[in-house]
Amino acid sequence: MCMRRCVVGLTFCTCYLASYLTNKYVLSVLKFTYPTLFQGWQTLIGGLLLHVSWKLGWAEINSSSRSDVLTWLPASVLFVCIIYAGSRALSRLAIPVFLTLHNVAEVIICGHQKCFQKEKTSPAKICSALFLLAAAGCLPFNDSQFDPDGYFWAVIHLFCVGDLLSVLDFPFLYFYRFHGSCCASGFLGFFLMVSTVKLKSLMTPGQCAAWIFFAKVITAGLSILLFDTILTRATVGCLLVGGLGEALLVFSERKGS
After folding, report:
1. How many angstroms separate the CA atoms of 30 and 27, rounded?
2. What is the pTM assigned to this prediction?
3. CB of 79 within 8 A of CB of 35?
4. How far apart are alpha carbons 165 and 205 in whole angstroms?
5. What number of other Cβ atoms are within 10 A of residue 180's Cβ?
6. What is the per-residue burial (b if ≥16 Cβ within 10 Å, else e) of 87-105?
7. Measured by CB atoms within 10 angstroms of the end CB, which terminus of the chain is less buried, N or C?
8. What is the pLDDT of residues 202-214, one digit of tens each?
9. DSSP secondary-structure letter at 31?
């Protein structure tokens, strides 16, 4: 079982790394910035692969009534916004910056659980949320490659992700990662979705959070080497604070599981 979990975790990290780097290359280097086309293409590829997986018995899809489908509409709207805003933001921002801003979605989820679901929040998780907010809040003032449009779309992206994960019930939740722009990106997005679902089904929340954190670290690190990224000391400081915040989030999840 331990070996199986390691294989699933490493597969997830590989898909995560390949998906983000491919998306960034096409969005930034090739300048293919048509988010509506991204959305249609990724949904088409993902839908076809999901249908094939269902036919082959690799995935289970429960049939639902029309009334159930109607309840998915709000989440579907957020899904569209996530893909559109995420593509726009990733095309303009460095991957470490994008991931640091994306982490604020965890703060939104934590706030919703604390205020509306009345869940008990550990001190480590509260400190994590504060660090994540501090890192994201300081980045615009210290980013030497600051792009106002990129930050604008990143804010929309993270709020949509936070609302979708904390409030609404959507059957194909992990399709929000389909913000690529080419065939390779479509397949990578699908495999990332499948590996994420497998990761969450085999591991505890703490173990899953640790693998996601590891995937983000290696993705952010390699992106700095592969893409034109300017990092000042202040920017690095913000990224490290964000990393510390997410490390505390992993610690709180592992302690609670």
Report:
1. 6
2. 0.75
3. no
4. 15
5. 30
6. bbbbbbbbbbbbbbbbbbb
7. N
8. 888 888 888 989 9
9. -
